[in-house]
Amino acid sequence: MSIADKIFIENCRQIIDYGFWDTDLDVRPKWEDGKSAHTVKKFGIVNRYDLQKEFPALTIRKTAFKSSVEEILWIWQKKSNKVSELGSHIWDAWADENGTIGKAYGYQLGVKHHYKEGDFDQVDRVLFDLKNNPASRRIMTNIYVHQDLAEMQLYPCAYSMTFNVSGNVLNAVLNQRSQDMLVANNWNVCQYAALLHLFAHVSGLTAGELVHVIADAHIYDRHIPLVEKILQQPQLEAPVFKLNTAKKDFYDFTKDDFSLENYQGFKLDDKIPVAV
Predict the structure, then answer these.
(1) Catalytic residue among 90, 157, 231, 243
(2) Residues of the chain with pLDDT under 70
(3) Is 12 a catalytic residue?
(4) Of the four, 65, 117, 127, 247, which is 20 to 30 A from 31 by CA?
């Protein structure tokens, strides 16, 4: 079985069986029919994925891997906030009148800051340090910028990455303030695992451990039956991650340079209610 399956099942069972329901609270999200979208949650979930053992893709529910990679490259490589530059339509609901998500996600990664070595945006600073200062304990990014929150269409959910090199191994911590377990959990895990592999490769390192810290891990009330259905699916072997290692420049990669071999899993065909 996939280790990612085991972790996801344990997380969801903890949330459903022992979590806190916010049904007595006035919550922001609404369903399409206007009713409040309530959740059951667990606070402070920490998951560890050893990328040297397997790629953490669910098999009990197949993740749209290429689309997840395209989104992470849109944020980290293109540093874009324009939804038209993304092939999928997952951000359409958050676009403003200019077709952007405001000063959110990729926009923040592209803002340059001054250092003694020169001017870098957050991504280029990570790339610089991984090659020139791998022993540094300061290799990190943060897109939860308080002075710009009012100009963001959506506050960042996954907001911070901390990179740490041990010998020839690159590890990372992903911090996330909020996680919709059905819609986004393995999507985020797969895309940040792929990103960690990419940073490691272009820096001459090996991808190691991805630690995922989730402050508010929740399942929406109308998602419970779908999650229960997924948890009953057979667990298969994890797929094999492949990256086009002929390329060396971080900015040359496209989603087609990433693939999962022998990826099998359950495809959820049910319509997922959307809370916004």
Answers:
(1) 157
(2) none
(3) no
(4) 65
Q: For 149, which DSSP code?
A: G
The residue behind tokens 């906030």 is: 81
**Structure-block tokens of residue 251:** 């900015």
Type of residue numbered 130: L
Please answer whether residues 62 and 263 qualify as being in contact, where contact means their C-beta atoms are separated by less than 8 angstroms: yes
Task: Provide the pLDDT for residue 59.
Answer: 98
> Do β-strands 169-180 and 206-220 pair in parallel, antiparallel, or remain unpaired?
parallel
Q: How many CB atoms lie within 10 A of CB 23?
A: 11
Structure-block tokens of residue 270: 């049910």
Q: Is 270 exposed, middle or buried (0-12, 13-18, 19+ CB in 10 A)?
A: exposed
pLDDT score at 5: 98
Q: What is the pLDDT of residue 67?
A: 96
CB count, 10 Å around CB of 159?
Answer: 18
Specify whether the CB–CB gap between 174 and 142 falls below 8 A.
no
Q: Which two tokens stand for residue 4?
A: 């990612």
The letter for the amino acid at 214 is: I
Phi, psi dihedral angles at 56 (to 5 degrees): -85, 55
Q: What is the pLDDT of residue 93?
A: 87
Q: Using DSSP, state whether 238 is helix, strand or coil.
A: coil
| Share of residues in the chain with pLDDT > 70 (%) | 100
If we measure between CA atoms, which residue out of 49, 90, 45 comes closest to residue 197?
49
Cα 63 to chain centroid, rounded: 12
Is residue 92 helix, strand or coil? helix
100: nearest Cα among 123, 76, 79, 121: 79
In the chain, which ranges are E strands?
A: 20-21, 39-50, 113-115, 118-120, 140-142, 158-166, 169-180, 206-220, 240-243, 258-261
pLDDT per residue as tens digits for the range 57-67: 999 999 999 99
| Whole-number pLDDT of residue 25 | 97
